[in-house]
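Sequence in, structure out. Go.
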Amino acid sequence: MRFIIVTGMSGAGKSTTLKTLEDAGYFCVDNLPIQLIPKFAQIAYDKENPVDNVAIGIDIRSGAQLNDIELYLKEVKKAGFEFEILFLEANDETLIRRYKETRRAHPLARGERIETGIHLERQKIQFLKEHASYIIDTSNLLTRELKIELEKIFVKDESYSNFIVTILSFGFKYGIPTDSDLVFDVRFLPNPYYVPELKPLTGNDKPIRDFVMESKEANDFLVKLEDMIEFLIPNYMNEGKNQLVISIGCTGGKHRSVTLVNALYDEMKDLPYGVKKEHRDIEKDAITKKL
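Output:
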């Protein structure tokens, strides 16, 4: 029996999360009145008619009652009922974009700018984040990637780290990714672009990997970068950071940066953190030529 409280920022993916858990066999209730949580837990844990798994959605829509949730959660604990809190997070830029795409009004904006509502919401639900069992930052997650993370935690019962590292390749001619925490330039490495038979390929192809990684500088860079990142991550975590975006760029984001991102990912994928890789500009060269 798992009793999950799903909460977090509006627009961070709570609806998707509840739907995913429901598809996985959880009994889900969204926007349950705060004062009913202890009664709901009692029903869910009833020995005669137990429910296998339960998830309830709690967020800013609860209004002033949200301030009382700690009291009700203490009541649940006192009764001997176990629960976990899943907090869904996203950065301001991502939340604003999602609100604009859906043309929804933020529940706390009250005619003001979306940013005002987001800032106020962060203040009001910070205490929930501090008590969270799991924090998932969806800023850089696609819907399918969020579902994979949820299945790992709540279906497969695998270990999960609240810290997610995204290793991102990009091309400088298309701009530096705005959500980057660390940016590295690998344009000093030999460029396959000037080798006719290699030019159409990408860093996902073996001939490109071999060409780039034959360079001593590429291997030295990889070793030093990995060592620095392993040093930085625990310190970022101590400061309360829950995600890190490492951007590696070359001219077009197709050859050298892709190779180094793949190599760094292979070295880091078994670390006790959530690690994923993305290639932002790998196809842009082909698209530009067609246009």
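Check: The CA atoms of residues 80 and 173 lie 58 Å apart. The first strand starts at residue 2 and ends at 8.
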